Amino acid sequence: MKKLLADGLIALTAGYLLAHFLTLFYNHWYFAEHFWLKVGVLTPLFALPYGIALQTPWRRFWLGLGGFWLLMHLANLLSAKSLTLEPLHFVQVLDFEAALIWPSVIAVVIQALLLEFRAHRGEQRELKAVRRQLKMRRRLRRYDAMHKAEQTIALLLAAALSLSLLAAGAPGSCLAAEAEAAPAQTEAESAPDAGEPAAPGENAEASEPAAPMHDRHSEFSDPALMPRTDGAHKRAQQEPYAGEPEALNWGGVGKLVKTPEWPDAYQVPMHLRQRESFHIIIDNRQDGEIVVEVDGQQRVAGHVLAPVAKTNPAGFTASGWAEPGHIAATAVNAIHIKTNHDYTAGKAEIFSLVPKEFADFDVTQYKSYFNSSSTLFTDIAGGAEIFGGQCAPLVSSRVEVRTGGASNWLAMPLGYVPAAGDSLRITVERRKYQPEWIEFENRFGGLIWIKEIGLEAYPIGQVLKPVAGSGRFTGTQYAELGRIRANHPGVIDISTTKMGIIGGFQIIPRDHSMSSEMTNARLLTQWMVVGPLWALDESWEGTEPLFNDYLYPAFTPAMNPDGTVNEAIQGADAFLDRFTVRGRYSDSPDPAKYELLRESVERVDDGLKTLTHVRIYFPRPD
Asked: What does the alpha-carbon distance between residue 250 and residue 396 come to, in Å, rounded to a whole number?
């Protein structure tokens, strides 16, 4: 309303200036009666189209032009003998016309040419991007075709060899006689080495089509679909932690997104890059300290208001893709830890850590509170410290326990139930060299690009359903505009509102969008659904870089709520920095420019309809 009122006043002023000039100019050619009546009649006639012009993408241009007209009018008023232009003689009016009209006409022509040039550049840029994408896809298809051709040739050679052996084994053949005379091979001698997989085409099985894709949700009730090295896991529960255990292979965890194996295309695999580690240590008792340990230096980040002493046997659906004994979700409003997986029920067992805003009791009287839930309540504010602040953990961060006064940290055992007096230690290992950004083309079939430092951007997946609106996602009120609110094996939640207001959208993987409780993700506009480049590849639940190990809600504000400078970010390391989510909009003056996400509060079904690209910028390394 205020904007409309201001625009109305500006339009009336511009209308008056134009009407005054036109009447002044007209009176010197014909007759000069009723000067102010003509000005009054013409003012609204000129104000209306000018007001409409202020609502177009040329708004700033028309504001500048109106300011120029006002400046010219005032300059002539000050140079006149009185504060009215009516007494100006004919030559002075022609000078006024030259100063007012011709620069304006030239400015309109230049602006039109600039817009045409920008539009042409934008089209060329988009065309170049499309050509690059098509070139990438052709290259991927060519790579795939070469691989299939190699398989076919190998298969034909194997078939030819088999036919030759059959022919050699016919009656009367000297080779057949030698075969009969030679001692029979044992099964062990003829079997290939079990430790080395056979090359494609070396046996008939290699040519058989791959088994049809299974629904990733079937992993929840079929342990065979989640292979693991039980011996290594059992040893990890009984011994102090000493480096990475043998491959556990829990679902998709630990698998990189499939990328083409071109020679010299990638420098160092992302999963082998150096990491920076710190610990979050929690004393699970009333008034127990929550300590952050970095490079051996400890500081208290908060305290336990009410310890946790039970687990929730019906964890949220996507926690099924998390590794037991690891973080299953990290958010500004909660941290969920998975302890076990019940294949009979198809559910994960979890317990949770939450900030003080979620305490369902009087925090001033918490010492008399008995906690019967599977939640550990803290006095840390939502969006701060371990809840989306400096020290937020990652999905898949390892959790260790110390019970009964033990001195060693042990891997959390399967089926662990926390007890008052236990200590928990979360080891957060963030990648020191993150990607620069991940970008989603917000359209059906749009590509998902990743840009690593020192490398060209390359596609890793595609958008199956774009996002067009914002929704009331709990917890977004604890995240600033354009920040990651939560990450777990089935979601990236992004805030579209300022701190204290609810509003955001979610990015979810293909199979999770088919969960029974995710029907709205298929019907409404608040969810973006993503998947791999190739339709036959497995869905991405629990896999990096989107739903495991890379993203976390990190935002350290430069200013404290009281307006003072936040000392915590002075000289902060890379892991203390922040993620930023920016976008491109089709209705922007420059559609190719990335800007901070526009605010969309609560549920607005078309609040993001002009959003064409979503880009997540990673924290910058030192």
From this structure: 11
